[in-house]
């Protein structure tokens, strides 16, 4: 079987990684509607909820993709360790980086964060006092829920730290996707790596701007 081989697993991991990166981009675009004001993000949330079961089906598919990606990352890491049970006496990492070396750890941290994020804003059980607010139009008041959440320093800090881990993971992961898929070469690799790092930086800045803007009072009720 293709996906039973190491190459197949890498290709599948690259594919699930690409799907997740696209989701992270789209999710940021949607979340950025908080800067428009209450009507922006509340209308966006209402539109999603109007899709009914389709939204939950999409969420389940994305969760499945994320879990497969994590499982493949762990499996490939263990296989690499088993293939070389004895460490080199003198190890030199010629084309690697700190972000590459800790990919498995940043991935696990992001898994924990995603679980927390789902409980926070999707299942809405971590902050029950602000989870069922309704705006003047009778829609779920997502704007107030987001602002009241990130006005709490610990919650804002948790999200900022998680986005730093996202930066570390994507700064290597985006370039690695093309390498695993065999879509790069020695000439294009430096460009792909640079573009990947800049995409990771832009995504981190975009996501971090939301809790920080709320925490310092730029976005408020």
Automatic annotation (TrEMBL):
Signal peptide: none annotated. InterPro entries: Cytochrome_b-558, SQR/QFR_C/D. The chain crosses the membrane at residues 12-36, 56-78, 98-119, 153-178, 198-219. CDD domains: SQR_TypeB_2_TM. Keywords: Membrane, Transmembrane, Transmembrane helix. It comes from the Bacteria. One of its GO terms (cellular component) is membrane. This is Fumarate reductase. It comes from Geoalkalibacter subterraneus.
């Amino acid at each position: 079987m293709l996906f039973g081989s190491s190459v197949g697993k890498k290709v599948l991991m690259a594919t699930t990684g690409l799907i997740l990166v696209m989701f992270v981009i789209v999710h940021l675009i949607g979340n950025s509607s908080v800067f428009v004001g209450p009507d922006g993000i509340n209308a966006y949330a209402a539109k999603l909820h109007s899709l009914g079961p389709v939204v939950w089906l999409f969420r389940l598919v994305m969760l499945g993709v994320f879990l497969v990606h994590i499982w493949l990352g762990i499996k490939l890491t263990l296989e690499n360790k088993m293939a070389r049970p004895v460490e080199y006496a003198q190890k030199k990492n010629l084309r690697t980086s700190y972000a590459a070396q800790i990919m498995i750890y940043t991935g696990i941290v992001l898994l924990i964060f995603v679980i927390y994020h789902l409980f926070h804003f999707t299942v809405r059980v971590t902050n029950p006092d602000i989870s069922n607010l309704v705006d003047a139009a009778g829609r779920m008041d997502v704007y107030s829920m987001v602002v009241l959440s990130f006005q709490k320093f610990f919650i804002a800090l948790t999200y900022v730290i998680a986005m730093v881990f996202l930066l570390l993971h994507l700064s290597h992961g985006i370039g690695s996707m093309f390498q695993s898929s065999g879509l790069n070469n020695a000439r294009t690799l430096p460009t792909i790596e640079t573009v990947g790092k800049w995409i990771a930086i832009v995504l981190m800045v975009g996501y971090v701007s939301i809790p920080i803007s709320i925490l310092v009072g730029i976005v408020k009720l």
